[in-house]
Amino acid sequence: GGVSSSTLLGLSKEGLSDGEQRKLRYAPTVCYVDESIVHGWSAEERECILARVHHVLTGSGFPFCVLPLQLVFCEDEAIADYFSRSTVAPASCASATSASGIAGQTPNGERSGECEERSAEACAASSSTSSPALPRLEAEQAQLANCLSSCQSLTAKEDLVFTLRTRLLSAVAAAALFDWVLTGENCTRLVIRTLSDIAKGKGAALPYATAFADRRERSTTFLRPLREFSSKEIGYYCHYRHVEVIQPPEISTKAAKNSSLDRLTESFVHGLQANFPSTVSTVYRTSEKLRVVDGAAGLDERCVLCGSPMDLPFGSDSHSDTFSKATTAAGHLLGGVLADRGPGVAATAASSSVMQSAPVTRDTASSVAAKTCSNEASSAESGCGGSCSCSGASAGTTPSDMFTPDMLKPYTCYGCRLVLHDMKDVGGAMFPSRVTHGAQTASNREEMREQIKDFLLEDD
Fold first, then answer.
1. What is the DSSP letter of 67?
2. Distance between CA atoms of 83 and 334, rounded to whole angstroms?
3. With bands split at pLDDT 50, 70 and 90, how would you rate the model's confidence at 253?
C-alpha cells in the first residue's frame, strides 16, 4: 500500500494497455502484504482495509493476491500452495461489479463514497465465494507475534518487519517462478533509508539498498522503477491522474520524531528539503555512485536475515567481543570497589561479570542445543522422557524453535546484529524456517571446514 505502490500500479496499467506504442512486455501479478497483526487491528478494521484493497486491485485488471505477513514462517511448499490458492483473477470480480451497476468514476473524475463502499462490498463478496478456503495460519501468527514482542525498540521492530516483508516477497516469487519483483520505492524514501542505514551500521549494504536492481536474493531480482522520482512528483501524478490510493498506517504513524532512527531521519530530511530543495537529489546522486563487486562474497558468506554479503568474519560476533571487553573491565573495577565490603559481595560481582562477558560464537551457539539433554539415558533419568524439543534433533543440529537472537548473531551482518541485540529471548520459534535453515547450513559448513582445514590448499 501507499502512494508509490499505487503509482507503480497505475503506470503498469498504462504501459500494458493496447493504446500504448511502447508497450511493456511483462505479465504482472500484484501482491498485497497484509500487516494487520503488526498494527494490532481488529477484525472489522482488517476487513474494511482488505475490502478496499480488493476493489482497487480488481480495477487494475491484473491477477492479485493478499498475503498475510505471518506466511513468511511457513515452509516453501506451504507458501507456494497459499499463493496459488489465494491468487484471484480479475474476471472473477468483473461480473459482480457490473451487476451492481457501479461505474469506475463519476463524470467529474471524483469517486463518491457510496459507490466506493458498494463496489468494495461486491468485490469482497465475489472473491470470498470464488476463492477456496485458505489456511488460518494460527501457529504462524503466534510466531510472528512472538517475534515482534521480542523487539525492545521501535527501530529494531521496523527493520524486522521490513526484512520479513522482503523475505516473504522473495519466497513467493521463487515459488511462482517470477524473475523480478517491482517495488514502489521512490527517491525520497531511498534517501531516508540511505542516511538511516548508515546510522544503523548497514553502510556495507547501501549499494544493494539503493540500486535499481537488487540481486541479494539468488532466485529473484528486486527492481525499483520509481527511484528517479521524488515523493512530491509522485503525489502530483496521483492527484492529476486521479489514482486511488490506499494508505494503511505504518508502525511509526503518530509516533514522536525521535521514537526511532527511521522516523528521526525522515523528519530531518523533510525539514532540510523544505529549506534546501536540492537536499534529496544531492544525497541520491551521491549514493548512486556506490557499486557492488559481484562475486566478492562466497555462497555461504551472506547474512541469513537480509542476504547482504558479510562485512564481518563469518561465525564471530564482534559486537559481543566489544561488549565483553567493556563488561570485563567494568567487572574488575566493580570487584575492586566492592572488595572492602566482604568476600561474598566481591565474588558475586566477579562471577556476574564473567557470565556477562562470554561472547556468542559459532561454537557456543552450536552447543546450546546439545546441553538441553546430554543423551537419551540422562533425559529418561531427568524425567524428560524424550518430550523436549531436543529429542527430535540429531547430533550437531539445532531445531528451528531453539534459535535465539544470540545464536543467530554469528551468521548475520553488522547491521542485523544490532537488530538482534535489541531483541530478547522470549522462548519458542522466533524466526522463519528459511532463516534458521540458512544459519544451520552455515554452521554445518563451518564445522566441516574446521575438520578438513589441514587438507585444504590455500590460494596464494
1. E
2. 57
3. confident
Q: What is the pLDDT of residues 297-338, one digit of tens each?
A: 444 588 999 988 888 876 665 544 444 443 333 334 334 433
SS3 label, residue 256:
coil
243-259 burial, b for 16+ CB within 10 Å, e for fewer? bbbbebebbbeeeeeeb
Q: Considering the entire predicted model, what is its pTM?
A: 0.76
How far apart CA 67 and CA 294 sit, in angstroms, is: 32
Residue keyed to cell 546484529: 417
Q: Would residue 40 be called left, alpha or beta, if left means φ above 0 and alpha means ψ between -120 and 50 degrees? A: left
Grid coordinates representing 268? 530531518
- Ordered DSSP codes for 175-218: HTT-SEEE----HHHHHHHHHHHHHTT-GGGHHHHHSSEE--SS
Is the pLDDT at 50 greater than 70? The verdict is: yes
Q: How many residues does the chain have?
A: 460
Task: Give, for 64, the enclosing helix (H) or strand (E).
Answer: strand 64-68
Residue pair 73/144 in contact (Cβ under 8 Å)? The answer is yes
Which pLDDT score is estimated for 314?
66
Q: C-alpha angle with apex 374: 373 to 380, nearest 5 degrees?
A: 65
Find, among 206, 175, 171, 173, the residue nearest to 191 by Cα.
Answer: 206
Residues with Cβ within 8 Å of 392's Cβ and at least 6 positions away in sequence, in order, are 399
Q: What is the CA radius of gyration of the chain?
A: 26
- Cβ proximity of 120 and 51 under 8 Å: yes
